[in-house]
Amino acid sequence: LTIVKQFINKILQVSIAYENLNKYCLIYLQLKMGFLSVLKKMRQKEKEMRILLLGLDNAGKTTILKRFNGESIDTISPTLGFNIKTLEHNGYMLNLWDVGGQKSLRSYWRNYFESTDGLVWVVDSADRMRLESCKQELRVLLQEERLAGATLLVLANKQDLPGALSANDIKDVLELDDITTHHWLVVGVSAVTGEKLLGAMDWLIDDIAKRIFTLD
């Protein structure tokens, strides 16, 4: 009888511990959701976005950044680290990060993933020899947990050059139709002339705004 009582007491202790654990888990989830709600409200008030520009070297990332910011593009040099621009556009404060695309620098891309709202993947549409590498690098990026949910804008750059593949061709080569984890759009642009660049960036900003500035 004593053994039975001890066994019952053990069961009761485990049951109470399990119930307390459930309570703590519920409290944790409530606190977490409350914290996320506060962060979302803060971001909604500030209307701030973090946008990351990536792509292989010589794709035109820095030229795109300068063109979008209204700067001169007469002198462009390879980005050996990163460039950052903060500017206001359509009522939003944009933090734009342009990171070097040389092969030796790509392992450092992950240092810039945190809190990214939008990913701009810049493609040299005239560099057919490296499109396969371009596709593989993009695939790796889209598997990154810290980029989950980020809006993807693929810029098929250098449309002003003879022999450049169209946006539709780039879509097929990169197999963008297979992407189901991110909102995405591909646009053929020219960083040199500015063709379609503003419209593409406006789409990106609008898509991000609908996602992060809409409170449930």
From TrEMBL:
It holds the Pfam family Arf. InterPro entries: Arl2 (IPR045873), ARL2/3 (IPR044612), P-loop_NTPase (IPR027417), Small_GTP-bd (IPR005225), Small_GTPase_ARF/SAR (IPR006689). It comes from the Eukaryota. CDD domains: Arl2. SUPFAM superfamilies: P-loop containing nucleoside triphosphate hydrolases (SSF52540). GO terms for molecular function: GTP binding; GTPase activity; metal ion binding. Keywords: GTP-binding, Lipoprotein, Magnesium, Metal-binding, Myristate, Nucleotide-binding. The keyword Disulfide bond does not apply. Belongs to the small GTPase superfamily. Arf family. This is ADP-ribosylation factor-like protein 2. It comes from Bactrocera dorsalis. The gene is ARL2.
